[in-house]
Amino acid sequence: MSKKAESIKVVVRCRPLNSKETAAGHKRIVEMDVKKGVIVLNNPNNQGEASRNFTFDAVYDWNSIQKQLYDETFRPLVESVLNGFNGTIFAYGQTGTGKTYTMEGVRNDLEKRGVIPNSFDHIFTHIARSQDQQYLVRASYLEIYQEEIRDLLAKDQSKRLDLKERTDTGVYVKDLSSFVTKSVKEIEHVMNVGNSNRSVGATNMNEHSSRSHAIFIITIECSQVGVDGENHICVGKLNLVDLAGSERQGKTGAAGVRLKEATKINLSLSALSNVISALVDGKSSHIPYRDSKLTRLLQDSLGGNAKTVMVANIGPASYNYNESITTLRYANRAKNIKNKPKINEDPKDALLREFQDEISRLKAELSKKGGGVVGSGGKRKRRKRRGGQGGTGSDGEIDEESDEEVEVMDEAEMYKEAQLKLENEKQTILANQNMIAEEKEKILKDLLTKQNDLKKQQQAQDALNSKIKAMESKLLVGGKSIVDHTNQQEKELEKKRLLLAEQQLFGKLQRVKCEIQDLQEEHLMERQNLEQTQNELTRELKLKMLIIENFIPPEERAKISSRAEFDEEGDQWSLKPLAKSEGPLQMAKRPVTASGNRRPITDYAKVSANKGGNPRYKAENILKIDLDLPNRTTRDYEGPTVAPRVQAALDAALKDEEDIDIEIVPNFFGQNKGKSKKEKGKKIVRTTKKGGAVNSELYPTARGLVSK
Ligand code: ADP
Ligand code: MG
Fold first, then answer.
1. Cα–Cα distance list, 440 to 420, 423, 435, 447 (Å)
2. Confidence grade of residue 261 (pLDDT, cut at 50, 70, 90)
3. What stretch of H or E contains 236?
4. Ligand 2 centre and the CA of 171: distance in Å?
5. Does the beta carbon of 246 lie inside 6 Å of ligand 1?
6. Ligand 1 pocket, 327 CB below 6 A?
7. Which residue CA neighbors atom 10 of ligand 1 most closely?
8. pTM attached to this predicted model
9. 225-229, 566-570, 608-612: least confident range
10. In sequence order, what are the beta bridge partners of 566?
11. Would the CB of 313 count as within 6 Å of ligand 1?
């Protein structure tokens, strides 16, 4: 019996983008590292924002197949149920993300069958391979819709069931029907009946299933002779839960009935959320299981003695982002729920025990009848069960239309012989001519009653026999009642698959261990660094303390520390300004007069001040001093003054000139007709810088200032 606490197992599954989404151009925002169990969600609204990471026991991406999920995640749990533990698998998530696909899958497609059908195969194969064990398997199917429980296997679908609680077996659904099933085919039939009832009355099946919780319950009882030689029974119960869609309900203008429905649907899911929170935070002594039908029914599975696997389903597309984040947070919290799984051994109300007892009682009765007592048969009432085992409160319904062949040849022959004897007797009496008619009639009548009694007895015995056969047929015995179709090869294959799954898990474990070691080393280094920093800081602090203690007067220290203020934003100490500081250490304020002025003023002065004028009576600021700047007594240097004429002459004189060739033209001096030879034919040419010629007539007359 395991009493160790273990966390509930949480796995995440992301379905592939469907054709509609691909056609609409939706992008996948989910990344999954299947090996490490890590899932990353990229925020589509804000590319800059860091993506969100989550780690789970396992993650299954869009390529995952049903069989893989079953072998890795669900098979161990169902195996535990076969060993007498209670187990729960529930699928959580937004509508359309694959809860039903995971739980039920696609009917008639072997590859796409979900947990429920796969568990059927698993259970009956396990039983077929068992030895020296007797099993009894039964199934129930219920739905919670608007906080009402409907038995999906009941004949009357309008009935609503109640939850009851018993101190020994806990919470159960009163009057929930359960069907004993002998094979995969039979339990599949039960599931199909329930599913068809589920859709009855629902106008929109999609909407209905997104708002209701469906729970398929398989109870497996197993009896075995223990080491003590006694017969022991253990009972495992498997809850397979397809929850309502986790999306916020009724945000689309819900009113009236819709709103009521919405709040009720939310009730179970939010109660589930509250239960998870309360379990996880470790402070709550009260876990609000009683807040909803769902949480009461699953009480055992959340923080109780069951083993639980939660599958969180999410969609891959960007428009699922918010719901996906919510689902992952929810799942992340659920990881921390601790259960204490425990085998249910020899419960008082095991149906198997009742079956066994009843069969031996019937057998005893039969053998008594074989002793020839006539007339005691046919009176036995149909057995009724009070309450159910751990949640099922029905009578152990027995299929009475069982068409089992009854093998009672010896007894039948015996009866035939007796009948024959009676008939012979009758014939002899009829043939006897010596008897009086009256006497004859009496004896014949006697014979007839005897004959009838015999018939009745035979019928009763037949009934008893078939009853025993029917009951025995429900009890499954390994290797006998079921033909094991799986040959050795298949067995090997399954073993290999299990081994593979185990190896993968082992690999995962090793990787995680490595990661843990890395983290620990990193942590150690960081710690050493921190310690070093701390040492340095302490040393520095000691120095500062030394200085303060020895060189700063205590009153100054006190003043400063009272003014010191820590600025959280700037992450540093600052000193409050003196004027604003309060208390005895502040600087003395400048006193004010009674009238609030800075200095006493006579009334006369006030009146005069109001009148304006004489500044002498201004209360404040008598002196209004503008700075009197000194007059300028100097002048800027301007240089000597020269008369314009002189200046011009100077300029002209100082100007650089190019070479001047002066030729004397003979008739230059106009009045002189007789020119010298030298002067004849020549003109005076003054070459300017531009090379133009200046008319000699215009040449200025010498003014005599510049000597020639
Ligand atoms: P839910 O029950 O959560 O509302 P369903 O199980 O009905 O969602 O899934 C919605 C659709 O997506 C269905 O058509 C289903 O076949 C498909 N689907 C879900 N999960 C997968 C998967 N892992 N692989 C392929 N198809 C899937
Ligand atoms: Mg569904």
1. 19, 14, 6, 10
2. low
3. strand 231-242
4. 26
5. no
6. no
7. 96
8. 0.63
9. 608-612
10. 573
11. yes
